[in-house]
């Protein structure tokens, strides 16, 4: 193997090991900081030495000098602390944690093939030397008492021996190649370290196999039905053939019956024989097909189980680093916090686990910064100075319920109400609905903007990430006693047990785990509470909506009183909503396909699946449906409601253009308001509202770009469709239009009445 390939392989190994060593060092440093002088201190120091020494040797093998030098200095400092030649005080802890973070950051730079000459780790070497220089000279020269070499170290030495000449390290490092590395533990059990990309490819191939299995199953079922049809046909033919033959035998010239031609008689005879052969052939084919299907099902099922088992990782993997996050935020805010992990051995699919890491980090940071009160407030409330945050995982059928609970002050509803008023948001009367406002983008009740809080970024990310995993998020709180965030996610994203249903003539899939119950209801059972249709069956009223209306599809005819219709009740935490559908088709296991980057943010949909007949069914997002279904109002029963005309606002300083646009749009059935400039349009929009805004760009007082920016900054109009209708058609202005948030850009010189109406209809 030449030097370039050797370096490439060693670098890939090094980057894989670096993350493990950083996690190990972080864990032991946190334990030493939390429990100094405990019984396990000596063992923790041994682990720290081993991790630092292994990382140093690995860095030397790939000539990453800055990491090698940093690890060498860490060994010296740890040796001095162990021998009581230097105190492990908060300042030294801070330096050690900062060094570990810088080592991790250097690894990220190496993955992106960046130079390390100006990395933060380089600047920390001087600080590490400053600590070592305070030690007696004889201590500096003495080698650290290190543990015996490990298998990894021996491998590194063999690697070094295989390269008699030093390998030059350049600013550009070859990208790592995909490979598998086989390691053995002390008992000889083999482990294979496989890159995640290979597992993903295996998972994709397994998904295709499961789809093929479903199609074969459908073919086997169709063949069985065809065999039954031919069997019935053959039986009917046998019944009819016997009297027909007797009639042919008895018929003669004197019977007045014209005899059939011999060719016809022979054909009828052959028909019976061939029908019998067809039946026997179909029987044999159906038996073979059924056997092949069973064999394929067994093989595919076994492979699916093994692939799932390979991809399953303990929940504790998603919690790695949370203790460090809690420690850093608590230290910055001057709070005493202990993080407790429960259910760490619950296993989830790797993709679900990866998707949980960011939400867990956000929620733990939020709990420390927002949930936990300062020490004086906790003391006044009769609580212990040390606060507790519990992150737990438990199996709930085919889902995992992850709970992040703190014993802090709970959500301040009054602060949430005040923030909602400031932003012009609807203020729910129910505290449960009010708490859901904290998941809105940019929503924060923090009074001070810091690097941890106040920006309103975090909880909206949690909601979007969990819903991307086909899960739901809910929050419950008790003022003065704490807050609980409940995340419900499936065990795996490879397949999903789902209900297939019809709405507006289309088939959709919805995860069974999100469905509390299936029912049939009579529209006469519905009641109206504050304009919302609800269903009350011995419990709290459940909001009711037609799924087609939630999805923006034609809902069809009004529901007929006295005729029961199928519905399903969705559940997320304490939230419930009943969705009326056209038909409940079936329940089956589905393979989820991504919608792709272009439509990955499609509202209410989180994927697609291929049905056995080859058709595609969209997978519905339960969390999005729950939010949208509430507030749709009463369901049409006896009478069809007149449609409400959409209101459009035209802003243009040209009276001719305004008149032309207004005439076209009013003729199409829209209600049209007009304004002469951007400032007037902004006032009119706030006073009267609109379903769509059409604006010129070049206008006095406030131009179209400024108007669009102003509209987009207002949460009330964040989703308002905006069309820029202008004579400026250069690419720079079009790009500027996109930047300010316009949904469409129409050039007046290329104006076509049909294009305008089609664009308006599309955006509405």
Structure summarized in a few sentences:
The protein is an alpha/beta fold and 764 residues long. It is 47% helix and 19% strand. The chain has five domains: 3-180, HPT domain (Four Helix Bundle (Hemerythrin (Met), subunit A)); 197-312; 318-490, 2-Layer Sandwich (Heat Shock Protein 90), CATH 3.30.565; 496-629, OB fold (Dihydrolipoamide Acetyltransferase, E2P), CATH 2.40.50; 647-763, Rossmann fold (3-Layer(aba) Sandwich).
Jot down its keywords.
6-stranded mixed beta sheet; alpha/beta; Heat Shock Protein 90; 5-stranded mixed beta sheet; globular; 764 residues; Four Helix Bundle (Hemerythrin (Met), subunit A); single chain
Strand content: 15-25%
Q: Give the class-level CATH name of the largest domain.
A: Mainly Alpha
- What is the averaged pLDDT score? 77
Report the strand count.
25
Roughly how many Å apart are the termini?
63 Å
Number of helices: 22
What is the CATH homology-level superfamily of the largest domain?
Answer: HPT domain
Helix-strand makeup class: alpha/beta
Kindly report the spatial arrangement of strands forming the biggest sheet. 12-16-17-15-14-13
Under CATH, the topology of the largest domain is which? Four Helix Bundle (Hemerythrin (Met), subunit A)
Counting structural domains, the number is 5
Unreliable spans are 138-189, 447-457, 638-642
| CATH architecture designation of the largest domain | Up-down Bundle
Biggest beta-sheet profile: 6 strands, mixed
Helicity, in percent?
A: 40-55%
**Overall morphology:** globular
The Cα radius of gyration reads 35 Å
């Amino acid at each position: 193997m030449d030097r370039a390939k050797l370096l490439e392989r060693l670098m890939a190994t090094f980057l894989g090991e670096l993350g493990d060593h950083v996690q190990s060092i972080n864990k032991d440093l946190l334990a030493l900081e939390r429990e100094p002088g405990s019984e396990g201190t000596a063992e923790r120091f041994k682990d720290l030495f081993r991790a630092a020494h292994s990382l140093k040797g690995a860095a030397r093998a790939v000539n990453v000098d800055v990491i090698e030098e940093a690890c060498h200095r860490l060994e010296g400092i740890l040796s001095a602390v162990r021998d009581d030649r230097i105190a492990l005080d908060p300042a030294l802890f801070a330096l050690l944690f900062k060094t570990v973070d810088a080592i991790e950051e250097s690894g990220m730079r190496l993955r992106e093939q960046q130079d390390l000459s100006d990395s933060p780790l380089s600047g920390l070497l001087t600080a590490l030397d400053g600590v070592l220089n305070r030690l007696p000279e004889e201590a500096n020269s003495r080698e650290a008492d290190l543990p015996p070499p490990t298998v990894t170290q021996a491998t590194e030495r063999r690697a070094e021996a295989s390269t008699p000449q030093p390998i030059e390290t350049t600013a550009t490092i070859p990208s790592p190649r995909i490979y598998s590395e086989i390691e053995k533990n002390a008992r000889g059990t083999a482990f294979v370290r496989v890159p995640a990309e290979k597992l993903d490819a295996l998972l994709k191939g397994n998904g295709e196999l499961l789809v093929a299995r479903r199609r074969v199953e459908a073919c086997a079922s169709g063949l069985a039905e065809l065999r039954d049809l031919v069997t019935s046909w053959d039986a009917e033919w046998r019944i009819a053939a016997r009297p027909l033959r007797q009639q042919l035998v008895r018929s003669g010239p004197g019977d007045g019956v014209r005899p059939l031609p011999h060719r016809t008689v022979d054909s009828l005879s052959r028909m019976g024989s061939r029908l019998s052969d067809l039946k026997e052939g179909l029987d044999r084919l159906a038996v073979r097909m059924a056997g092949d299907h069973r064999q394929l099902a067994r093989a595919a099922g076994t492979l699916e189980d093994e692939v799932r088992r390979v991809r399953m990782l303990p929940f504790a993997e998603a919690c790695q680093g949370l203790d460090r996050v809690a420690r850093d935020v608590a230290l910055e805010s001057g709070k005493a916090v202990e993080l407790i992990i429960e259910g760490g051995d619950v296993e989830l699919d790797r993709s679900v686990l990866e998707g949980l890491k960011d939400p867990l980090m956000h929620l733990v940071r939020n709990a420390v910064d927002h949930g936990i009160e300062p020490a004086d407030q906790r003391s006044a409330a009769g609580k212990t100075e040390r606060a507790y945050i519990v992150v737990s995982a438990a199996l709930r059928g085919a889902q995992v319920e992850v709970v992040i609970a703190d014993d802090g002050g709970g959500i301040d509803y009054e602060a949430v109400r005040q923030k909602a008023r400031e932003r012009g948001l609807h203020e729910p009367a129910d505290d449960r609905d009010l708490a859901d406002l904290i998941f809105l983008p940019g929503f924060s009740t923090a009074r001070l903007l810091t690097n941890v809080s106040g920006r309103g970024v975090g909880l909206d990310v949690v909601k979007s990430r969990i819903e991307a995993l086909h899960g739901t998020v809910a929050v419950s709180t008790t003022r003065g006693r704490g807050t609980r965030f409940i995340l419900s996610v499936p065990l795996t994203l490879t397949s999903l047990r789902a209900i297939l249903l019809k709405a507006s003539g289309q088939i959709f899939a919805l995860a069974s785990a999100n469905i509390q119950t299936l029912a049939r209801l009579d529209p006469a059972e519905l009641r109206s509470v504050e304009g919302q249709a609800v269903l009350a069956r011995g419990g709290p009223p459940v909001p009711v909506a037609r799924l087609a209306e939630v999805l923006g599809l034609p809902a069809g005819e009004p529901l007929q009183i006295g005729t029961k219709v199928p519905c399903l009740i969705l559940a997320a935490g304490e939230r419930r909503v009943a969705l009326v559908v056209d038909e409940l088709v079936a329940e089956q296991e589905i393979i989820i396909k991504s919608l792709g980057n272009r439509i990955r943010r499609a509202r209410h949909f989180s994927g697609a699946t291929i049905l056995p007949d080859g058709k595609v069914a969209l997978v519905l997002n339960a969390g999005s449906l729950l939010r949208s279904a509430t507030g749709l109002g009463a369901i049409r029963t006896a009478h069809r409601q007149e449609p409400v005309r959409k209101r459009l606002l035209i802003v243009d300083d040209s009276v001719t253009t305004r008149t032309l646009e207004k005439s076209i749009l009013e003729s199409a059935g829209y209600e049209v308001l007009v304004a002469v400039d951007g400032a007037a349009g902004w006032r009119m929009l706030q006073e009267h509202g609109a379903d769509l805004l059409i604006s010129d760009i070049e206008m006095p007082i406030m131009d179209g770009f400024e108007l669009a920016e102003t509209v987009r900054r207002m949460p009330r109009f964040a989703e308002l469709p905006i069309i820029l209708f202008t004579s400026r058609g250069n690419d720079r202005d079009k790009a500027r239009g996109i930047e300010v948030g316009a949904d469409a850009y129409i050039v007046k010189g290329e104006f076509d009445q049909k294009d305008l109406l089609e664009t308006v209809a599309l955006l509405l």
